[in-house]
Amino acid sequence: MAFSGKPVCQGRLCAALFAAAVFFLAPAGGAEAEERTLTLEEARRLAIENHERVAIAGEGVAQARADLRKATSRILPNITAEGSYTRYTEEKGTDSFIIQPRESTSAELRLSQPLYSGGREWATRRQARLQIRSRTEGLEAAREDVVRETSYRYYGVLKAGRDVEIKSAALRRAEERLEVAEARLRVGDVTRSAVLRAEAERAGAEAELIRSRNGLENAMALLRRATGLEGEAFMVTEPERIPADERSAAALVEAALGERTDYVQMLLEEKAAGEGITIARAGFKPSLRLEGLLLWREQEPATTFFQEESASATLRLTYPLFEGFLRRAELSEARSRLREAELRRLGLRRDIEVQITEALNNIGAIEALTESFRRQLAFAEEDYKMVFEQFRFGVAATLDVIDSENTLVSAQSALANAIYDLELAKIDLMYLTGSLVDGRAR
């Protein structure tokens, strides 16, 4: 595991702490297992391949395609075949005039073809196509959500690993202060209370390190869940810094309106709502249907007016006259759904503008904080060196070196978190503009 930025330790101490951090990145009991190096890009790819959320969204696309086939079936002819056999209890009639046979067999082939229904079937089919595109955008949205979540998990591991490194260095410094306190006690420069205070500080540093290691294991568990690498040992590496997006807020908003999956889905829903009005209006129009029938029958004995074969064609025109104002209610509902879809899209557009502005402000603030934390850390490191040397020679008190230690650890943690928070803020901006996942298919 590699870290960049200003080092928090130097020389042999840094190397030892780096090795300890790498060791604790492996799962428990995996000392003999072969570790793999997991990059951020590979973690994202594995998450897309293995996460259930993406698979569920893919099933939604498959269901939308099935709906299109169902909508197409309403336009195509409907052909049915039916056969029957009837056995009567007795034959009725005379030898010259039979009204009921002893047995009868029949088979029919029926064709039904809709010719015109006010455009309902075609509008339903267009709606189904829009639904496929919407579900496809939903699949891309699921991928983007999983990539974003995996990125957070990955940087969570990096944060936890850096925290282990910081707390390990703090424990080493606590042990060093204990050694100095014991040496000064032997020569009579301090009392026993100074050693006890150093012992307490070392125990506290050990507790903080245990807590940090537990946080690292939890972060690794979350990353394994996101990537599907359950039970597999791996190491994470420091990803390259994300370059800053130099585009203006207005340009980013325009890019988001063209690339954001949720906004594209809103546009598709608006178009589908417009097709819903066409479907509702079709209820006020007549429908025309062609029906054909081919019938074959056999009787034993044949009745007097028996006809063995027959064929017919019917052109059926239907016009609704009154249905309790159902059609008006359906049309009113369809128009309301269209207005609702337009309002949803408008609301999302305004939310996108606010979200991007907020993301840019966060990036600017974190960049400024990072520079402040770098200066704070430089001052804290120099201050600790001076105070510790004074403590070594009896000039500074125990409380002075403890305060300096707390300031140093706080500065190290603040800088480490700010560095990774800046990368996450850039990822959030990419997510908000729809550019987090490449290779999207429209």
Characterize the structure shown.
- The chain has a single domain, classed as Outer membrane efflux proteins (OEP) (Up-down Bundle), CATH 1.20.1600.
- Helix content is 65%, strand content 13%.
- It contains nine helices and eight strands.
- It has helices at 11-25, 40-50, 52-73, 120-186, 192-227, 249-259, 261-282, 326-392, 398-433; strands at 36-38, 78-87, 92-93, 98-100, 103-116, 234-236, 287-300, 309-318.
- The strands form three sheets. Strands 2-5-7-8 form a four-stranded antiparallel sheet, with no helix packed on it. The protein has a two-stranded parallel sheet with strand order 1-6. A two-stranded antiparallel sheet has the order 3-4.
- A hairpin with an 8-residue loop joins strand 7 and strand 8.
Topology:
Layout: H1 11-25, E1 36-38, H2 40-50, H3 52-73, E2 78-87, E3 92-93, E4 98-100, E5 103-116, H4 120-186, H5 192-227, E6 234-236, H6 249-259, H7 261-282, E7 287-300, E8 309-318, H8 326-392, H9 398-433
Parallel strand pairs: 1-6
Antiparallel strand pairs: 2-5, 3-4, 5-7, 7-8
Helix pairs in contact: 1-4, 2-4, 3-4, 4-5, 4-7, 4-9, 6-8, 7-8, 8-9
CATH fold-level assignment: Outer membrane efflux proteins (OEP)
Structural class: alpha+beta
Instruction: Report the order of strands and helices.
Output: HEHHEEEEHHEHHEEHH
Query: In what order do the strands lie side by side in the largest sheet?
Result: 2-5-7-8
Strand content range: 5-15%
**Mean of residue pLDDT?**
88
- Total strands: 8
Q: Do you know the CATH architecture?
A: Up-down Bundle
Which CATH C-level class is it? Answer: Mainly Alpha
The global form is elongated
Largest sheet features: 4 strands, antiparallel
CATH superfamily: Outer membrane efflux proteins (OEP)
